[in-house]
Amino acid sequence: MRAALPVAGALVVGVALGAAWRLLAPLARADVVGGGVYLTGHRELQVAQDGWLALLLALLGVTVATVQSARAREPQAGRAVVALLGVFVVGAVAWQVGQWLGPASLAAQVAAGATHPTTPLELRTTSVLLVGPLLFAVTRCLGALFSSPAR
To answer: Among positive and negative, which fits the CA dihedral 85, 91, 95, 96?
Structure first.
């Protein structure tokens, strides 16, 4: 029962971040001409989609580390490892929820008769999922380094 709360919290935060990623990330509009799909500026939008998820996960990692450092209790190492894994799980959930909430694939939209489909929301660089845990670890280490010893 004790493990259910962090897991449920990670799922809820992951769903919220996935929805935020869907709202913030730009989508490209394509044109269907003569059965062909034409995209303009698509590569830049792919980078922007990954960048928005990276930004959201970075904010999450720093926030969780700051809150955990401010509410320091024993044992520190175990809580930090669980939080680090939780930040990673939140990122994976956000990724999947964002893709699920985003538009269908271009092929599915064209098959449904769309003449101006929008590109799907996809994560092209999966290493973005490591941004949150990395910034969590760095912030947590800095918090431990610069905090006064417990008395």
So the answer is: positive
